[in-house]
Q: What sequence folds into this?
C-alpha cells in the first residue's frame, strides 16, 4: 500500500453516555406506547365484561347470561361453521392457484397474480354488495341476466353469502402466503426424489407438502382469523344468520348494551388468540429450508398439467373480474334491474346518508395519516427492538406486544378503544387519575391510532424482516467511528430499507381505506368515513350508492397501489444503484 | 514475554460468560506498541469474543483491559481509539467508497475540504485511488476489504482490530493483502490484533500468536515458538500437522519406547515419565539414502503416496513388533521421492532425528 504519512485526526468526544440513555429511553417509550395502545384498552374491555351496566363488579354473571341466551350462544357455532368452511375452500383454492403460479409453466402469471390480489383492496362490505347484485333476489344470476336465460337462486342470505364473501376476502391472503412457501424450495430435493424413483404422488406428499408445512399452517390460521372476525360482509348478506362479529355490532350500536358487547368480544377473542398462539409456536419450530446453496426449482413443461392449471387460473381470474365488473356495472345502472341506463347518478350521493365525498375525502386523509405516522412508528420501533443491545427483557416483551394485534379483531380494538379513551379517569385505591388521552375520543387521532394498531403486526414483521437482512455490524461500525445511532439510522438503515418502508406505508393506506370494523365504533358524526358510509347507506337500503362508494374506495386503492409500484421502481433505479453489480 | 510496563495493550484476567457458557476464561496477555498479534484457534474458542472485549463491544465479567496503562474497561468502543474491520466488512451499501471512509470523519473535522483531503489520503493508503465514487456492490471482494480497512483507519486509531479480515477472499487476493496489511501496520507503527482461524495467515503475518482453545489462552509466543516449541499436543496439531505415538519414556536412558521401537530423544523432558506421547512433524521424518544405522532408523512400509505438487505426502506404517504398526505421515520434496522411486507397497528406511522428536504428557491430549 502506498506510502503516505498519516494526518493526526482529532476525535469527536462526549455524547456516548447521553446516546446510550437516549436509546434506553426510546426503548422504554416503545414499550410504554405498546402497553398504552394494546394492553390497557384490552384490560379495560375485559374488566368491562365483568361489570354490570351501572359499573358494579358482578363477576361472571354476564357470561352466564350470555350462554343462557340461545340467540347469542348459537352465534359461536355459526361463526365457527362459516369460518372453518371458508378456511377449507380458501386454502384449497389458494394452494392450487399458488401452485400454478410457482410450479407450472402457465402463461400470464403476472396478470393472474395481480387479479387475484384485487380483493385485498376491497372493503368486505363491497364483497357482500356485489354478491347481492349477482345472487340476491334481483341478482344477475338469480334472474338469469334480466330474464335472458333461466335464473337460479342459491339462497344467498345467510351462511352461503357469508362463506362466498369470506372466500373472496381470504383467498388472496392464502394465495400469497402459499406462493412464498412454494417458492422457497430446493430443486435438489426434487432431483433426489426423482433419482430415487419416487412417483409424482409420493414426491408430492414427501417433498412438496413437508416443504410448505409452515406456510400451510400460517395460511390456515390467517384465513380462519380473518373469516372469524370479519364484520363487513356478514352485515350485508348475513340475513338472520347471526355470527359473533355482527352480534357485537348489534349489541353496541343497536341495543347500546356495551357490557354484552364486551362479553361477545371476549368470546370472539378466545379462538382468535388460541389460533394466534398455535401459529406462533408452529412458526418458531420452522428451520431455514432454503440455504445459500439451494438451487431454485424451475418447473418443467408438462402439457396436460400446464393445460389444467391454465384453465383453473383463467376460471378463477374470470370469476374475480366478473365480480368486480358486476360491482362497477351495478354502481352505474340507473335503477337495477328496471332501468338499465348507465351513468354516474349514484356517484353524486344526493339524498343519501353517509357523507358522500366528504366521507371519501376523510377516509383518504385518515389513510394518509395512518400510512405516514404508522410507518414511522412501526419502522422506528422495529429498529429499536431488532438492532439494540441490552434491555433484552423489555425488547422481547415489546416484540410480543408488537405481533399481538394480529390476534385482535378490528371490532374488539374499536370497542376497547371506546372503553379506554372515553373513560374520564380511573380510581386507584381511592385516588382518581384523570384520563390523559380522553381528548382523543371522537377525533381523527383515535381513528388513525386504531388503524395503526389494527394493522401494526404485519407492518412490524415486514420491517423486522427487512432489518434482519442488514449486516449486524452496521451499528457496531458506527459506534466505533463515534457516529450516533440515529445518524446511521437515517443515513443507512432507512435508505437501504426504503422498499420495505414503502410497502408498509402502502399496506397501511390500503387497509385503512377499506376497513370498517374498528372505525365504525370510533368515528364521530363530524368525521364521516367512506367505509362507514357504505355500511350506513346499505342499512338505509341505498345499495347502489353504497356500491358506488365501494367502487371508489377500490379505485383509490388500486391507484395508490400502482403509484407504489412506480415509486418502488423509481427508488430502485435511483437510490438503490448500489444493489446492481 | 514482554514486561508489563512496555505494553501498549494489556488484558488482565478477562473472563466473559454468556449464561452458563464461559467464552473467555481468565485470559491475560499484552501487546507492545506496533506489535502485530494474531489470535488463532478453532471456531468457538472465544477468539472473536476476546477481540470484542478489547474493542469495548463486549463488557467482560471479570478482569481489566488497559490501553497505555490506563484502565479502559468501562469505556465504550468510541472512546478506546480503535479501528475495527469486520469479517463481513459491514460496508454501508448505499454509500460510495468515499462516503463509507468519510463516515466517521464528518463529526470530527470541520471543513469539507479537510475531510476530502483525508479521504484521498486514505484511498491512496489502501491503494484504491480513483475508485472512491464506486459503491461497495461494484467493487471486488479485495477492494471492499480495502475500503473497510481505510474506514477503520480514518480516525487514526491507536489499535487496529481485524476480525478474520481475509477469510472471504480468494486465495491469491488473500496472499497479496496479507503482505500489504502487514506492511502498512509496520510503517505506521500501529498495534494490531487479528483474529483468524487460518494458521498460515497467523504464521506469516504476526509478531506473536495467541493460541486459544475453549475460552482459554493455551500458548502465547512468536510464530517459530508456536510451531517448533508447541506446549501441548493441541497446539502441535492445530498449527501444522504432527505425528503422535503413545508409549513410555525412560528418563535415565532418554529413550521413548513402544513395542519393539526405541526412539532416542535429545530434548530434556524433566517432568516426564511413564506414559507419554512422542511427536514429530511430517517434514522432520527423513528417508535414509545411504544405509545409516542407529537407534532412530526404522524400516517402514509405504502405504500410500500422495502427490502435492512441490512435495509428496507419504503414509507410512511403522512396525511396532508382531502385527502392530503405528501410522506415520512424512512429507518429502518431490525430487527426492522421484529419485528414490518410492511407491506404494515399497519398503524404505526412515530416520526420526532425535533432536526433532518432542514428548508430551499423555494426559495432555
A:
Amino acid at each position: 500500500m502506498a506510502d503516505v504519512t498519516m494526518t493526526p485526526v482529532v476525535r469527536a468526544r462526549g455524547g456516548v453516555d447521553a446516546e446510550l440513555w437516549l436509546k434506553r429511553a426510546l426503548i422504554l417509550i416503545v414499550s410504554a406506547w405498546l402497553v398504552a395502545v394494546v394492553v390497557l384498552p384490552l384490560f379495560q374491555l375485559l374488566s368491562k365484561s365483568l361489570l354490570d351496566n351501572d359499573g358494579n363488579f358482578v363477576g361472571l354473571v354476564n357470561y352466564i347470561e350470555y350462554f343462557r341466551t340461545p340467540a347469542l350462544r348459537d352465534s359461536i357455532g355459526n361463526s365457527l361453521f362459516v369460518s372453518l368452511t371458508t378456511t377449507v375452500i380458501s386454502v384449497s383454492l389458494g394452494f392450487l392457484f399458488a401452485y400454478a403460479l410457482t410450479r407450472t409453466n402457465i402463461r400470464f402469471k403476472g396478470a393472474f397474480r395481480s387479479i387475484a390480489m384485487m380483493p385485498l383492496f376491497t372493503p368486505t362490505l363491497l364483497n357482500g354488495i356485489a354478491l347481492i347484485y349477482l345472487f340476491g333476489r334481483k341478482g344477475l344470476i338469480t334472474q338469469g341476466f334480466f330474464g335472458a336465460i333461466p335464473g337460479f337462486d342459491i339462497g344467498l342470505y345467510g351462511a352461503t353469502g357469508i362463506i362466498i364473501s369470506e372466500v373472496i376476502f381470504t383467498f388472496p391472503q392464502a394465495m400469497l402466503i402459499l406462493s412464498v412457501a412454494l417458492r422457497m424450495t430446493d430443486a435438489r430435493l426434487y432431483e433426489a426424489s426423482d433419482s430415487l424413483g419416487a412417483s409424482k404422488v409420493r414426491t408430492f406428499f414427501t417433498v412438496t407438502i413437508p416443504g410448505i408445512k409452515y406456510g400451510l399452517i400460517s395460511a390456515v390460521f390467517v384465513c380462519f382469523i380473518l373469516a372469524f372476525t370479519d364484520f363487513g360482509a356478514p352485515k350485508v348478506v348475513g340475513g338472520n344468520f347471526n355470527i359473533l362479529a355482527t352480534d357485537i355490532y348489534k349489541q353496541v350500536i343497536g341495543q347500546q348494551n356495551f357490557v354484552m358487547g364486551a362479553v361477545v368480544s371476549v368470546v370472539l377473542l378466545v379462538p382468535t388468540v388460541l389460533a394466534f398462539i398455535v401459529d406462533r409456536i408452529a412458526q418458531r419450530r420452522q428451520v431455514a429450508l432454503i440455504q445459500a446453496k439451494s438451487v431454485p426449482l424451475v418447473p418443467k413443461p408438462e402439457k396436460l398439467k400446464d393445460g389444467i392449471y391454465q384453465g383453473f387460473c383463467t376460471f378463477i381470474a374470470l370469476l374475480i373480474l366478473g365480480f368486480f365488473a358486476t360491482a362497477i356495472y351495478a354502481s352505474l345502472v340507473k335503477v337495477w334491474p328496471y332501468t338499465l341506463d348507465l351513468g354516474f347518478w349514484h356517484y353524486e350521493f344526493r339524498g343519501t346518508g353517509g357523507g358522500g365525498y366528504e366521507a371519501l375525502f376523510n377516509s383518504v386523509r385518515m389513510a394518509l395519516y395512518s400510512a405516514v405516522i404508522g410507518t414511522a412508528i412501526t419502522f422506528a420501533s422495529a429498529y429499536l427492538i431488532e438492532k439494540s443491545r441490552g434491555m433484552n427483557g423489555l425488547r422481547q416483551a415489546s416484540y410480543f406486544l408488537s405481533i399481538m394485534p394480529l390476534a385482535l379483531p378490528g371490532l374488539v380494538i374499536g370497542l376497547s378503544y371506546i372503553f379506554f379513551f372515553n373513560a374520564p379517569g380511573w380510581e386507584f385505591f381511592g385516588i382518581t387519575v384523570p384520563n390523559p388521552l380522553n381528548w382523543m375520543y371522537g377525533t381523527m387521532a383515535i381513528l388513525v391510532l386504531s388503524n395503526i394498531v389494527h394493522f401494526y403486526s404485519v407492518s412490524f414483521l415486514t420491517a423486522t424482516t427487512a432489518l434482519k437482512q442488514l449486516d449486524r455490524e452496521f451499528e457496531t461500525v458506527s459506534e466505533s467511528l463515534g457516529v450516533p445511532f440515529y445518524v446511521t439510522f437515517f443515513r443507512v438503515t432507512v435508505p437501504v430499507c426504503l422498499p420495505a418502508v414503502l410497502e408498509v406505508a402502502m399496506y397501511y393506506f390500503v387497509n385503512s381505506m377499506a376497513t370498517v370494523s374498528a372505525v365504525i365504533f370510533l368515528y364521530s358524526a363530524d368525521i364521516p368515513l367512506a367505509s362507514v358510509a357504505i355500511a350506513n347507506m346499505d342499512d338505509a337500503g341505498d345499495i347502489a350508492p353504497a356500491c358506488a362508494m365501494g367502487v371508489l374506495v377500490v379505485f383509490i386503492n388500486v391507484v395508490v397501489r400502482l403509484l407504489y409500484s412506480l415509486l418502488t421502481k423509481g427508488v430502485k433505479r435511483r437510490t438503490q444503484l448500489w444493489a446492481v453489480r | 514475554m514482554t514486561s508489563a510496563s512496555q505494553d501498549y495493550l494489556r488484558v488482565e484476567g478477562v473472563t466473559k460468560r454468556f449464561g452458563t457458557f464461559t467464552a473467555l476464561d481468565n485470559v491475560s496477555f499484552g501487546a507492545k506498541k506496533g506489535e502485530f498479534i494474531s489470535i488463532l484457534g478453532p471456531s468457538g474458542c472465544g477468539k472473536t469474543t476476546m477481540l470484542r472485549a478489547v474493542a469495548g463491544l463486549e463488557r467482560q465479567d471479570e478482569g481489566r483491559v488497559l490501553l497505555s496503562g490506563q484502565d479502559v474497561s468501562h469505556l465504550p468502543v468510541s472512546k478506546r481509539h480503535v479501528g475495527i474491520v469486520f469479517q463481513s466488512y459491514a460496508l454501508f451499501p448505499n454509500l460510495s467508497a468515499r462516503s463509507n471512509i468519510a463516515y466517521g470523519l464528518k463529526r470530527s473535522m470541520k471543513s469539507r475540504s479537510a475531510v476530502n483531503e483525508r479521504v484521498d489520503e486514505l484511498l491512496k493508503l489502501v491503494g484504491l485511488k480513483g475508485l472512491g465514487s464506486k459503491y461497495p456492490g461494484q467493487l471486488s471482494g479485495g477492494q471492499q476489504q480495502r475500503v473497510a480497512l481505510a474506514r477503520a483507519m480514518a480516525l487514526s486509531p491507536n489499535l487496529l482490530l481485524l476480525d478474520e479480515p481475509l477469510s472471504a477472499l480468494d486465495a491469491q487476493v488473500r496472499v497479496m493483502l496479507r503482505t500489504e496489511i502487514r506492511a502498512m501496520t509496520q510503517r505506521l507503527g500501529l498495534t494490531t490484533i487479528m483474529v483468524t482461524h487460518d494458521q498460515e495467515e497467523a504464521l506469516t503475518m504476526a509478531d506473536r500468536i495467541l493460541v486459544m482453545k475453549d475460552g482459554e489462552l493455551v500458548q502465547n509466543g512468536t510464530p517459530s515458538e508456536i510451531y517448533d516449541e508447541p506446549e501441548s499436543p493441541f497446539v502441535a496439531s492445530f498449527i501444522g500437522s504432527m505425528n503422535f505415538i503413545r508409549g513410555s519414556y525412560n528418563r535415565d536412558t532418554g529413550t521413548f519406547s513402544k513395542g519393539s521401537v526405541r526412539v532416542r530423544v535429545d530434548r530434556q523432558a524433566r517432568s516426564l515419565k511413564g506414559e507419554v506421547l512422542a511427536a514429530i512433524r511430517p517434514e522432520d521424518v527423513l528417508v535414509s539414502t545411504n544405509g545409516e544405522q542407529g537407534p532412530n532408523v526404522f524400516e517402514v512400509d509405504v502405504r500410500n503416496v500422495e502427490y502435492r505438487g512441490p512435495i509428496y505426502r507419504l503414509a507410512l506404517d511403522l512396525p511396532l513388533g508382531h502385527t502392530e504398526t503405528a501410522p506415520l505421515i512424512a512429507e518429502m520434496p518431490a525430487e527426492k521421492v522421484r529419485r528414490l522411486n518410492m511407491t506404494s507397497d515399497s519398503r524404505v528406511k526412515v530416520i526420526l532425528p532425535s533432536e526433532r522428536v518432542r514428548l508430551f504428557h499423555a494426559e495432555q491430549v
